[in-house]
Input
Amino acid sequence: MKKLLYYIVRRVAGYLRSLYWKSVYEGYRDRYSIGRDFRFNGVDVIFYGDGSIVVGQGSYIGGLSTVYAANGYKVVVGSGCSISHNVRIYTASPIADSDFSIESPPSKYGDVLIGNYSWIGANVFINPGVVIGENAVIGANSVVTRNVAPGEIWGGVPARLIRKKQGGVDAA
Output
């Protein structure tokens, strides 16, 4: 009986959690330019900031991911993009060489643009000002600090070109 009660409580709690996140995601759709067919794959996806977040048709983002658009900056995700879980996309970030003992260390700012049909692996960090070209791949656990050309596969910390795709948009 105790196991059954535990099972029921767990199921109800899970259902209530999913309802909560569904409500949060509807708020994101109202605040930012996110299409109805964009999928929030999982819970704990955070979109925030006073900037602009625009997402194309048929894209998705995995759970535990964060997208931040600072005031005056934008994050644009193209159509058909696959963004895995625990991905961080920011339009503002402190400059690493700064003195963090001062009250407001300087930050770098820039729009983040992700081209159509790109694939972003799990646990990726995308720095401000980065443009990821169409049909590009960013391998899991990468830190993207530079622009990625269309049809390229990048990975590592910092992310570097691994190779160009054999097929796809640039192979013709």
Q: What stands out?
A: The longest helix spans residues 2-31. The chain has a mean pLDDT of 94.
